[in-house]
Design goal:
The protein is mainly α. It is built from 14 helices and four strands.
């Protein structure tokens, strides 16, 4: 059986890229704490957007979908699920809300992981919530001919409970000893969790929820304001490539998790950069037209009205529409397409 020992990580030499990533995130964290003190009201405007995006994209990765209108209604708890997909979306919403509101009081233990998984399926008739797998599962892929093949074989059902207990114990011990940076421990814990693949379903979503929980508990709150799940969804192929690369030799303890560590740390840095950019926009006291103009200046390539609404959460949709119309009439931007296919591009010339 695979064994786990996170304490030995304190003796490992990480390459310069990982060291640089960690240094950057520490710098962003210091700015984050300053923003939290100085601009709490402005930051709250970003929370609801991030919740919707996190719920949407983490489920989207697994092929679980609903309409944008229904998604927003579900996240705001203004409706009840009407399909199997919506039942799972509602479950994700519930777990994310609990993590947002109570992360300080959710210890990293098998019991709490099981409770979160049970909540994930609390709206579903599936009788798998809160239970470790009872049959062997596999991580599969599909080749160019549409044929399914096994990428990785996780631990057996018999080995799973003790393995989850071990990684929780190792994580908590390493955090308490404070000899290994949490930004190393978190990706390694999530990588091991995904390799164990402890549930019959929901492993990917649980891994992303646990990533958020672990980051929050270690003081990295960026996922509350910028959706990490959205960033993972938009670089899904890189995510799976990094995971597959890191899984090689895992069952014998000969794996190298650096690819997954770099991927996750790079995602966190990207989120922090967006966070600081959004804070600058939402905290400005400029007129709507100037705020929209500033938001437009940060976008490369084509953009939509919804993107501007996201960047300017303090503005109403009507204010954004009016500003975009004015900028179009002034020749600052160009409107393309019609109806739902409408998008804009900057006219920098």
């Amino acid at each position: 059986m695979r064994t786990f020992n996170y304490t030995v990580l304190k003796n490992k030499k990480w390459d310069n890229e990982i060291v640089a990533y960690i240094a950057q995130i520490h710098e962003h964290k210091a700015k984050q704490e300053l923003f939290l003190k100085q601009k709490p009201q402005e930051l709250e405007k970003l929370v609801e957007i991030a919740k919707v995006q996190s719920t949407e994209f983490s489920n989207e990765i697994e092929g679980i979908r609903t309409t944008n209108t229904r998604l927003k209604q579900l996240v705001s708890e203004k409706t009840t699920p009407k399909s199997r997909d919506e039942e799972e979306i509602a479950g994700y919403r519930d777990v994310l809300n609990v993590i947002h509101e109570s992360y300080e009081y959710i210890p990293i233990t098998p019991n709490y992981i099981l409770q979160l998984h049970k909540m994930l399926y609390s709206h579903s008739p599936k009788a798998i919530g809160g239970k470790f797998k009872n049959i062997q599962n596999y991580i599969s892929g599909t080749d160019v001919n549409g044929k399914t093949y096994t990428i990785f074989t996780p631990l057996s059902p018999f080995e799973t409970p003790i393995a989850i207990e071990n990684i929780c114990d190792e994580f908590n011990k390493a955090i308490a000893e404070n000899d290994v940076d949490p930004l190393i421990l978190i990706p390694i814990f999530i990588h091991d969790f995904l390799c164990i693949h402890p549930f019959l379903d929901g492993n990917g979503r649980m891994s992303r929820l646990l990533t958020t929980l672990l980051l929050y508990r270690c003081g990295y709150l960026v996922g509350k304001y910028i959706s990490l799940e959205a960033k993972i969804a938009k670089s899904k192929s890189l995510y799976y490539d990094a995971l597959e690369q890191s899984q090689k030799g895992w069952d014998t303890g000969e794996d190298n998790p650096e690819s997954f560590i770099k991927y996750l740390l790079g995602t966190i840095i990207s989120a922090y950069r967006d966070f600081e950019e959004r804070v600058e926009i939402v905290s400005s006291k400029m007129p709507a037209i100037e705020m929209v103009k500033k938001a437009v200046s940060t976008i490369i390539g084509k953009f939509t009205k919804s993107q501007i609404v996201e960047l300017c959460p303090s503005l109403s949709i009507k204010s954004v529409e009016g500003a975009l119309k004015k900028l179009t009439n002034e020749g600052k931007i160009k409107k393309c397409g019609i109806g739902k296919n409408t998008f804009y591009i900057r006219n920098d010339n």
